[in-house]
Amino acid sequence: MPPISVCMIAKNEEKNIARCLKSLAPYGFEIIVVDTGSTDKTKEIAVEYGAKVFDFAWVNDFSAARNFAASKAENNWIFVIDCDEYITSMKLPELLTLIRQYPRYIGVLEIENEMLGDSVSSDGATKRTYTTSLVRFYSRKYNHFVGEIHEQVVPFGFKEGKDVFSFNVPVKLYHTGYVGTPEQIAAKNKRNIDLLMAALEKDPNDAYNYFQLGQSYVLGDDYKTACEWFGKGLTFDLDPSLEYVQTMVVAYGQALLKSGRNDEALNFTGIYNEFSQLADFVYLMGRIYMANNQPIKALGEFLKVITMPPGKQQGITTFLPCYQIAVIYDNMSLSASGEGDMNNQEIALMYYRKCGDFAPARRRLAELGEKNEEML
Prior knowledge:
Oligomer: single chain
Low-confidence stretches: 118-125
Strand content: 15-25%
Largest sheet: 8 strands, mixed
């Protein structure tokens, strides 16, 4: 058995936990499931998959539950996974080598988050994904969780400003927790917002909690309130290299556009140099220029982003900018005439085709095809 224990906390997860545990089964890990008050078959399912199940009275503190789970493990190395996640790839031999090489380090892995919503058109809900990197491996001898919500792993005795060393874990997870009924999303958001507000009362200078509040309101489609919290979070002196800061900047810009505050979003030109290495930010700038009727500047950003490494949002360097480029040339063909009109439409068609099966592009190709047939 590998010297790794999987630790999970659960409540009423009978619809998800079997899928998660099934993805863990091939690796032979010890599995600890800490139940915080399920009234469904969560615990029974966990036992069927060989998990050791413990009860924990919920105290509005995710770190307390995470640390309790780790205390029940037989191994010092802890792999944290949630019930609404499952493994899509794992290189176990490589992982075992890494934990021997870096006994005090924390391990960061990629999580692909499934979300609902079309990134360009609002006609119907489509699936999209957004990739994040989170700490999910650590040795309990040297590290533990802190924070009541959106908890983080830090070394014992950690103080702000100290470096925390990490290694990349050869594991990928897929997360479905952001998809659910409106009632489920609303209930989860209310719980998170209540906990975050309580955390801010204790420490009003924690920018990370402002960021998470903004994210919670985005999930609830309340972009106006999200902007308020993102704006407050970005008043602090923050390191632009931190992942959550980069995510907050992009999310703030998107929320401003969703709120119709296009002129405010244009102020992001002032932070372009700090974030221009991020594909998601460059794409955002293209959208900001488009929203402010500056298509030529937008075109430059979209052409730039398709040359960059993949970003966090699915399609951010492929079909999304290609669609925007096609729209720009399409609009120019409609407003021009003669030879230039035909050239612009040909370019638009080329970029629409580069979008693959992206629904808005396919619809426009169909429309243009019908028009072309009428002209013949």
